[in-house]
Amino acid sequence: MLKDLGVKPYLYPMPVLMISTYNEDGSVDVMNMAWGGICAENMVALNIDEDHKTAANIKKRGAFTLSIADVAHIEAADFFGIASANEMADKFERSGLRAVKSDKVDAPIVEEFPITLECKAAELQNTAYGFRVLGEIVNVLADEKVLDGAGNVDPTKLGAFVFDQFQCGYYAIGEKVGQAWDTGAGLMK
Hints:
This protein is mostly beta strands. It has four helices and twelve strands. A seven-stranded antiparallel beta sheet has the order 3-2-6-9-10-5-4. A three-stranded antiparallel beta sheet has the order 1-11-12, with no helix packed on it.
C-alpha cells in the first residue's frame, strides 16, 4: 500500500556536486550543492540561493567549475556545504585541498576531485522558484586514475557518492547492475 508523504524534494539519488568559483579577492570558494545537474548535452543547471557567495562570484566572473565529490574527500565536501564563504573567508584553505586556475574559464579547479566540468555562465535566471544558473560546459577534465584502458571514465573508479533527501545521508555508488539501452531490450519483442 502506498502512503501519502505530501510535497517533499524526494528524488534519489541526488548528485553531490562541488561548485568552485573565485571570490573578488581571487581566493577560492567551493560550495557543496545537490540541486543541479546536466540539462542538455553541453549544459548544466544549478539551483542555488542567490545570497550564497558562489552566486555573487558567478555573476561577477561569468564562470565556474563543477566537480563530482568522491568518498576520499567526503569530509571536505561536506564542510563545503556547512561553511558559508560569506562568514568564513578562509573556507577553502581550511579544507586542505589544492586548486589551480582553469585554462578555459575564470574559475578554479580543485585538484583532488576526480571529474571537473569547466563551465561559463550562459544564462542567469531569477524566477518565482529561485535563482538558476545555466552553464555551458566548455571542457571536462578527469584524473587519469579514473579512466579505463580506452581513456573513458570508469564509474567504478570514481569513488563518487550521492545525497539522500530522505535521511540526509551520503551513500557510495559504483556497482554496475545493468547496461543502458540493452537490459530492457527483451521487452521490445
